[in-house]
Write a structure and sequence with these properties.
This protein has 355 residues and is mainly alpha-helical. It has one domain. The chain has 17 helices and no strands. Helix 7 packs across helix 15 and helix 8 runs parallel beside helix 14. It is globular and about 65 Å long. It starts with a helix and ends with a helix. 38% of the residues are buried. The N terminus is likely disordered.
Length: 355
């Protein structure tokens, strides 16, 4: 294909161009998505009462209908969210993030790192290479920790699902408090000057030389990145979604509202620290924990307690601590858990007090 033909193929108005075909496919997919999504309540009720013969007022019927409705609902919400995230992430590579943060002062860098943690590709398995890359390229330790806290805690999937399920106020509370915890935690760890508590081999790693210029992506390529994100992420998280909804369905059908209100209500002073302690050893991602949050709130649990539980599960998970042990000493991990855990406790108590 000649250079002229290639430019014409990528032109926005070109007949049969990849961008135009992708726009048509996305429009059709969105129409089908809307039709399926709005039919879910009727389908779940029909399956529960007519096909399975269960009575909705009874615990089993209520739990089954909750499960049959929430599984496709959350997966349907997750698919466009992950698609958009995949497109956005095509603008923010880890290498670009590292270069940006290395040029910032610690105070500004902590805020920027927390914000970039929301959109930069990150998972527990990438914690070690990201940490090594940040430290060896001159990113301050406190800034690095702001990123490490924000990236899993202020999860864009959880943010979008919370917005879809509970509205913008709950989503904004989650995002704002999560970013605040990440910024404060990074600032505290940075001020403590704990570089000596990083495993020595990390500083012995030589930084890589300048990378070649990053490839410029066209919109068809970015749309393709969104589709690839859907295939990769949804395929990885759907078991957690189903498991989380199964737990949520059990809570919805069988746990009395009075019990949950006394156990995770605002009146029990010990509910917030207990929620954090329960959340740390659990292993789940944001897509799997949001349905449990939905069921807990529906049964009378306090918002602050539930937010603390969710943040502990996502931001202080035991598997991530095990992975970080490769680059951090036990003392620094303990400081990390103590600082972030204190921030989560403050968030829980604050929102139980004011809401």
């Amino acid at each position: 294909m000649s250079a002229t033909a290639s430019i014409e193929a990528h032109a926005p108005g070109a007949v049969g161009s990849p961008a135009l075909r992708q726009a048509a496919v996305l429009t059709g997919a969105l129409a089908v998505w809307g039709l399926v999504y709005w039919s879910l309540p009727a389908v779940a009720e029909w399956l529960t009462t007519s096909i399975l013969g269960l009575s909705r007022p009874k615990p089993l019927g209520a739990a089954v209908e909750f499960f049959l409705f929430e599984v496709p609902k959350v997966l349907l919400l997750l698919t466009p969210v992950v698609f958009v995230v995949g497109v956005v992430r095509s603008f923010f590579t880890p290498e670009r993030t590292r270069r940006v943060l290395a040029r910032r002062r610690e105070a500004v860098g902590g805020v920027l790192a927390a914000l970039l943690g929301v959109v930069t590709p990150f998972c527990s398995c990438s914690a070690v290479p990201l940490f090594v890359g940040f430290v060896t390229t001159g990113v301050p330790l406190g800034v690095t920790f702001s990123f490490l806290v924000s990236a899993p805690m202020v999860n864009e999937v959880a943010l979008a699902l919370l917005f879809a399920l509970f509205g913008w106020k709950v989503a904004a509370l989650y995002a704002g408090t999560g970013l605040a915890v990440a910024i404060v935690a990074g600032t505290v760890i940075g001020r403590l000057r704990l570089e000596g508590w990083v495993e020595p081999w990390v500083f012995a790693v030589k930084p890589r030389g300048e990378r070649p210029a990053e490839e410029t992506l066209h919109w068809p390529d970015r749309i393709g990145a969104g589709r690839e994100a859907v295939r990769e992420i949804v395929a990885r998280v759907w078991p957690y979604v189903v498991a989380g909804i199964a737990v949520g369905a059990s809570i919805h059908g069988y746990v009395p509202q009075s019990f949950m209100a006394s156990f995770m209500g605002r009146d029990a002073w010990w509910s917030v620290p207990l929620a954090v302690l329960i959340g740390i050893p659990l292993y789940s991602n944001a897509a799997g924990i949001v349905p449990i949050v939905q069921a807990l709130l529906g049964k009378g649990a306090a918002l602050g307690t539930v937010l603390a539980f969710m943040m502990a599960v996502i931001g202080l998970s035991l598997p991530e601590m095990v992975i970080l042990r490769k680059v951090l000493t036990v003392r620094l991990i303990a400081v990390f858990v103590a600082v972030v855990g204190t921030g989560i406790l403050f968030v829980g108590y604050l929102f139980n007090l004011v809401l």
